[in-house]
Design goal:
By secondary structure, the chain is mostly beta strands. The chain contains no helices and eleven strands. A nine-stranded antiparallel sheet has the order 3-4-5-6-7-8-9-10-11, with no helix packed on it. The radius of gyration is 19 Å and the shape is globular.
Amino acid sequence: VSEALVVRRNVNGDKVLDEQGVEVKDLVKSTTNHRRCRSAQLRRFFTSKHYLFIIADLDINEPANVDRSTRQITGVGYKLWRSKNDLLSAAIGLGHKQLVPVSGDAEKEAIAYLGFRFKRALSEKTSLQLELDSDFGNDNRFSEAQVSLSWKLREPVSLRLKYEARFNSSVVDPINTFDDGMEAALSINLAVDVFQ
């Protein structure tokens, strides 16, 4: 079961306000998460520590008023530290983001990107990963934190248990999934590393 506070909108897609001018919010409960997302992240090393990257994302979540949200980013990254079991890298980039809501006007903006990756091999087949991403646009900052535990089934397929927290513009409590500016999910994913 998932629950979220959602701003009520009228038939024109405008926010509904009460007598004091405060947004009216409804607690929406659902037994399933309707978010569907696709993401591709490509890296190409041009030295032993420096790499170019491309990120392309597509999110669809109609119950959350997201008909389509896309993000394309390109930039440069640096391998900060590598040992036998650990990898830490950071990346910066520029890109473009577009949001097409189910109701309301589409939004487009140029963005700057900052990302960090930490991966620790726990054994030959299991690893722990932490990913922090943030993109900055004209109106807001979008940040995403992911913690995942991966089990390699066979090359190149892994089963991944992942906790993901996504939020806009302000520091929020990632444990409080009822925070209005926060979306959190625990999921099991099949990951395929096409380019290793």
